[in-house]
Amino acid sequence: MRGKYGTLTLAMVILAAFIGGCASSPDIQEVRPDPLPLWNDGAAKEQIIGFVDDISDFFSDSLVPVEERIAVFDNDGTLWPEKPLYFPLEFIFDLIEEMAEEHPAWKTEEPFRWVLEENYSAISTEDFPALIQATHGGMTQREFSRLARKWLRTAEHPRFEEKYKKLAYTPMLQLLEYLRKNGFKIFICSGGTAEFIRAYSGLAYKIPPEQVIGTTIDTRFEITDKGPVLFRTGNIVPPLNDREGKPVNIQRYIGLRPIIAFGNSDGDIQMLQYTTEGRGPGLGVLLHHDDAEREYSYDEGTEKALELAKENGWTVVSMKNDFKEVFPEKEEEQVKSGDQLSTGSGQGDR
Amino acid sequence: MRGKYGTLTLAMVILAAFIGGCASSPDIQEVRPDPLPLWNDGAAKEQIIGFVDDISDFFSDSLVPVEERIAVFDNDGTLWPEKPLYFPLEFIFDLIEEMAEEHPAWKTEEPFRWVLEENYSAISTEDFPALIQATHGGMTQREFSRLARKWLRTAEHPRFEEKYKKLAYTPMLQLLEYLRKNGFKIFICSGGTAEFIRAYSGLAYKIPPEQVIGTTIDTRFEITDKGPVLFRTGNIVPPLNDREGKPVNIQRYIGLRPIIAFGNSDGDIQMLQYTTEGRGPGLGVLLHHDDAEREYSYDEGTEKALELAKENGWTVVSMKNDFKEVFPEKEEEQVKSGDQLSTGSGQGDR
């Protein structure tokens, strides 16, 4: 029986391919299902699909071989929100509150005091190394991964009352899936610390740890009585994965220039320049947060990027107009299609 | 006609699968084709195939999900020779000779003088930063990649009278292919500089640039009148990708502990310890150069690793006894099966 049905199906596929081959191309385009149904029709959607069609069309001058189809995505503000606080900072602040009991001196010592007093506006980029040192160092790689996963399992977003890992934008998840189907290898390239991102990138985005570029914390190899471990020193390996640091790390980790870069803020400018201003095709995209009702509306920290988008022809995605939805319906499953990767959940625990 | 043959083949495949399913397992094993025909039967081959069978058997306690099947391979001395000189050094020395005309001071300045006088034994690890600075820095990423590819196209091995990139060991290429078929993602983790390895890893091993971990040279992002470039400073980003540096970089670049590590020298010890001494399955393999006739025979620089192999149960591959051949026959094609990746040839040139 199975053989018979197999035969029938095979014949039908061949027939369909033959008919398809004879049809004129406008007909084919009309029957093609919408690859991004969670995106409203408009310039942004058109530009993204047009670019992917162009670089994957065998007869196009812009054809890019599959192994060079690299896309880089910023994370905070691009794949999930970054308000009211940048999530990696939220993680750090929560850890500091948890660890404060063991560090009574922090009550008077800056920048820790500011965190404990929730005086977040006092904290600047210069304070990051000390805060990262205290929360990301002094433990093994495995211990840190456990801390990160625990936070992601329990902490909730103050406004959306939802676990952070469930706040990935569904139209963006759909875009990642669409690019993968078109042969893209997708890397996250974000300012957060790499092992924090790796703790959820598998589950949230189906992006395995080896495709995550973040700010790197140094480790030291040690043989202990429990076997070999990587001990986290807590020192940042320069550069911070932000601004000029992004293209530097893209070369370091990938070794190829991406053909798509997707960001949302001034920290993504250099990554977009690197992707779009070289030889060959390159698509730069910025997500604009203009949707106070469903998410947030703000321009601070993105002014320069939005200005350069106009100059350089980068695609600007309006969350308000281009996203049919922002987050998954609460009763629905988060990832709409396909299975979730198991990588990420157990990462670093072997 | 095509449909008819397709049908026939399909029916045969289904029939074969059915018969296979009914047969008892020893019969299946007997009819299974040898996955490593370029390897002689023996303990090494048995241990490698046994490990792969074990971690990919759905009913085994050692089953490792596909996304965690990470294998790391040293390059020099493991995938191709490292004698009479370590090939990355050969590349550096050739560049210094080429550049000497523009640097007359090198005639009296060490370590450059030693290179020009071919007094290689005078050069030690401490001299590497200066040699690397002079040859790997002061140019853009694209310019460097061109230098590396030019060398690989033209330079010849003094004994084998063959281009370096054609000296990959065929049994090792077959092993890479076998692991890929079993779901492994393979990374090179070698002491050479990353961009030098990336210039040939696609063509020689079908390993794309993003799966190459080498010693990293720092770059600086700059906007020039020719567009954005990565300017190579020539400084090494610590750690050197050797000894303790290997597991540190494996975590940094991959974020997962490998389950197979394959090396050949004392510089690979920590990578093998990290892979084999943690929780869960891990296979460590050392290639022993004991074949003066077909390649080289030496123990210097590998003594400690060979000793630890006994203690830790690492598999030792004897080039003499375990390799049916070492290099491709000169009249044959280098890569025996499948197409070559185009990645690597054009890398960095977009």
Please explain how this structure is put together.
The structure is a homodimer of 350-residue chains. The first copy, chain A, is of the alpha/beta class. Helix content of chain A is 39%, strand content 15%. Chain A has 13 helices and eight strands. Chain A has helices spanning 2-22, 25-31, 43-55, 87-99, 112-116, 128-136, 141-154, 170-181, 194-205, 245-253, 269-276, 303-312, 319-322; strands at residues 70-73, 139-140, 185-193, 212-224, 227-237, 260-263, 283-288, 315-318. An eight-stranded mixed sheet of chain A has the order 2-5-4-3-1-6-7-8, with helices on both faces. In chain A, helix 12 links the parallel strand 7 and strand 8. In chain A, helix 4 crosses helix 6 (128-136) and helix 7 (141-154) packs across helix 9. Chain A starts with a helix and ends in a 28-residue tail after the last helix. In chain A, 41% of the residues are buried. Chains A and B meet through helix 1, helix 9, strand 4, strand 5 and helix 10 of A and helix 1, helix 9, strand 4, strand 5 and helix 10 of B.
